[in-house]
């Protein structure tokens, strides 16, 4: 089997097949205080989560590092700031996105620098996330079931 045939097979695997649906994804809303976002991050064990607006459109991503940088003072953590600052004021809005119709290779290219990429519809409503883990699992499965590996 040639590499071109392998590539074609990988492009046949859609993001929709690999993604985690929005109902199962921890997220915060842009008007939440940083205190709430930090609680969600700590309780979920994630380093970052999607930020949604009130209509469930994707607005950005917020992570622990951004929050901790906001409360890091010269001599102590200024935790009182957690209730004063809103997620929308510090979230990262410059993030890649995918659609359900994109394929595994599109996902791989989008997440080289990210642990997950948000999946949105054509109106930017949040559909879920594609994780680096899901892509690696699918690639591993493809490798172990390929004729190249089984020679």
UniProtKB/TrEMBL annotation:
UniProt domain CBS: residue ranges: 19-79
Keyword line: CBS domain
CDD domains (alphabetical): CBS_pair_bac
UniProt keyword Transmembrane present: no
InterPro entries: CBS_CbpB, CBS_dom, CBS_dom_sf, Diverse_CBS-Domain
PANTHER family, per database record: CBS DOMAIN-CONTAINING PROTEIN CBSX3, MITOCHONDRIAL (PTHR43080), CYCLIC DI-AMP RECEPTOR B (PTHR43080:SF30)
Protein name, UniProt field: CBS domain-containing protein
Taxonomic lineage of the native organism: Bacteria, Bacillati, Bacillota, Bacilli, Bacillales
């Amino acid at each position: 089997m040639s590499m071109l045939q392998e590539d074609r097979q990988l492009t046949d695997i859609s993001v929709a097949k690999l993604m985690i649906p929005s109902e199962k994804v921890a997220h915060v809303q842009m008007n939440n205080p940083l205190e709430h976002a930090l609680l969600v991050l700590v309780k979920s064990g994630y380093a970052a989560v999607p930020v949604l607006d009130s209509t469930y459109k994707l607005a950005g991503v917020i992570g622990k590092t951004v929050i901790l940088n906001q409360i890091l003072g010269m001599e102590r953590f200024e935790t009182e700031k957690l209730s004063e600052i809103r997620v929308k004021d510090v979230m990262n809005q410059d993030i890649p996105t995918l659609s359900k119709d994109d394929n595994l290779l599109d996902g791989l290219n989008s997440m080289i620098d990210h642990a997950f990429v948000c999946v949105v519809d054509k109106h930017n409503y949040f559909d879920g996330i594609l994780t680096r883990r899901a892509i690696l699992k699918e690639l591993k499965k493809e490798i172990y079931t390929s004729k190249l590996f089984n020679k």
